[in-house]
Specification:
There is one protein chain. With 230 residues, the protein is mainly α. The protein has one domain: Orthogonal Bundle (MetI-like fold). The protein contains 8 helices and 2 strands, in the order H-H-H-E-E-H-H-H-H-H. It has helices at 6-48, 53-67, 71-81, 97-123, 126-134, 139-169, 181-192, 198-226; strands at 85-88, 91-94. Strands 1-2 form a two-stranded antiparallel sheet. Strand 1 (85-88) and strand 2 form a beta hairpin.
């Protein structure tokens, strides 16, 4: 039976705080991206059911375009097309790469959430629309006072699954120079100059993402069972 060198684990533990600081950036990017993506995706989803053909068509095209585009391609576009500096009130501010990457992640999140919103609204029986119209409610009142409150529980499980997918996608930001957990793991391995750390360090990184994302997936499954229509 092979003997595992304890010094390897000591080195992994020594680099752990360094990698954890990078993982905190992964969490920050995912949190901001899900907030921005949720806001934009809700508007896109409502646009898909608009009675105005122009709004409905534009929303559907944007949703399908960004939903089916590779996340890495969208990330590259946002990283290199967004300005590196912003001038406001006579002051120039640098736009950090992690913030541009966050915007890049929020684009596919918004597109996926748009479909979640559209699907949730479409799952509400049409009879509720007709009943509300018979009572004299307008379209906006029906949507915001009757339909959307029912959609919250329907959208929550897929929204949580989308966030779990998002947090596991944030290491893509290391390709464009963001110093998150994967980039710091690679830096730690390179600084040691030893291939013995390769598997333990990446295993630790894998465990880090698993311990964060797995509970989210379990909670999502619990909500899905609880809120499943009867």
């Amino acid at each position: 039976m092979p003997v595992i060198d304890a010094s390897i684990f000591a080195e992994v533990l020594r680099w752990l705080p360094f990698v954890l600081w990078g993982f905190a950036l992964n969490i920050l990017m995912s949190a901001l991206a899900i907030v921005v993506g949720t806001a934009a995706g809700t508007l896109l989803g409502l646009g898909q059911i608009s009675i105005l053909p122009t709004v409905r068509g534009a929303s559907r095209i944007a949703t399908q375009l960004f939903r089916n585009a590779p996340w890495l391609v969208l990330l590259f576009y946002c990283i290199f097309l967004m300005p590196y500096t912003v001038t406001a009130f006579g002051q120039t501010y640098n736009v950090p790469s992690w913030l541009r990457a966050t915007i890049g992640f929020s684009v596919p999140v918004a597109a996926n959430l748009s479909e979640i919103v559209r699907g949730a609204i479409g799952s509400v029986p049409k009879g509720q629309w007709e009943a509300a119209e018979a009572l004299g409610y307008g379209r906006m009142a029906i949507l915001f006072r009757i339909i959307l409150p029912q959609c919250v529980t329907r959208m929550l499980p897929p929204w949580m699954n989308l966030y779990a997918l998002l947090i596991t996608a944030t290491p893509l930001a290391s390709i464009v120079g963001v110093e998150e957990a994967l980039a710091r793991t690679q830096a730690a391995i390179q600084s040691q100059g030893s291939s013995d750390l390769l598997i333990p360090m990446y295993l630790g990184l894998l465990l880090m993402f698993f311990l964060y994302a797995y509970p989210i997936a379990r909670i999502s499954n619990a909500f899905e069972r609880r809120f499943r229509p009867v």
